[in-house]
Amino acid sequence: MFTGIVEELGEVTAVENLDEASRFRLRGPVVTQGAQHGDSIAVNGVCLTVVDHEGDEFTADVMAETLKRSSLGALTVGSRVNLERPMAVGDRLGGHIVQGHVDGTGTVLGREPSEHWEIVKISLPADLTRYVVEKGSITVDGISLTVVDAGPDHFTVSLIPTTLDLTTLGRKQPGDPVNLEVDVIAKYVERLLGDRGEQPAALPDTSGSRP
User: Fold this and answer.
1) Which residues are CB-neighbours of 155 under 8 A, at least 6 positions away?
2) In angstroms, how far is CA 7 from the centroid of its own chain?
3) Cα separation of 110 and 175, whole Å?
4) 61, 123, 180, 182: most buried, per Cβ within 10 A?
5) pTM greater than 0.70
């Protein structure tokens, strides 16, 4: 489980194409501290398993399904990536509940800079629009963000200078892909209500029931 608070901006140092998979080597001095084989690290919002690590670098295998559903397949040597270790029990939940399971990808549509922040507009796949609401939470490339505006096929987020400096969103340009993970609570609520298959119960008619 992650929180969407990026710990550092890492870098892809090697990419090896395997049979229906890829192996990435990534540099991240912070997230590799104490890392062991089998540990989880979120890379641009995708939960990956550490295969091995040496010094400040680690490798992770990415299967075809993940490459298809995320933007990791577009990474090349030198690409910058957002890195985050899982939340430890007892840590503060600085962002929101993030699983590291990408629901789909969007595309940066535009940027509107201002003196103290920047508005970024991102496309939204049709099957995810029902989960995105104004002032709700969404994860973009592993970053926990608050939705400013939720449109029928897009949403916007407002980024402070710290987010622009310390994450990939400070470098993304119109046309660049981003990984999206919607709020898992919204998905569970939808599933639970769908499984019940019922409309809200009508209130009993109490008119004329008083003595």
Assistant:
1) 121, 122, 124, 132, 138, 147, 148, 149
2) 14
3) 8
4) 180
5) yes
End-to-end CA distance of the chain: 57
> Please, are residues 111 and 193 in contact by the beta-carbon 8 Å criterion?
no
Check if the beta carbon of residue 15 is closer than 8 Å to that of residue 76.
Answer: yes
Give the bridge partners for 118, in sequence order. Answer: 113, 159
Please, where are the H alpha helices in 146-207?
Answer: 161-166, 184-196
Q: Measured between alpha carbons, how far is 50 from 188 in angstroms, rounded to an integer?
A: 29
Position 104 scores a pLDDT of 94
Angle subtended at Cα 98 by Cα 110 and Cα 163, rounded to the nearest 5 degrees:
40
pLDDT at position 32: 95
What is the structure's pLDDT at 206?
A: 40
d(CA 50, CA 42): 10
What is the separation of C-alpha 120 from the centre of its chain, rounded to a whole number of angstroms? 15
Rg over CA atoms, the chain: 20
The pLDDT of residue 211 is 41
pLDDT for the residue numbered 198: 53
Q: Are 81 and 10 in contact (CB under 8 A)?
A: yes
Cβ–Cβ < 8 Å for 147, 155: yes
Q: What is the pLDDT of residue 203?
A: 45
Q: How distant, in Å, are the alpha carbons of 41, 88, 110 from that of 48? A: 5, 17, 29
Q: How far apart are CA 101 and CA 201, in angstroms?
A: 34
Confirm if 182 and 127 have CB atoms less than 8 A apart: no
Q: What is the DSSP string of 120-151?
A: EEEE--GGGGGG--TT-EEEETTEEEEEEEE-
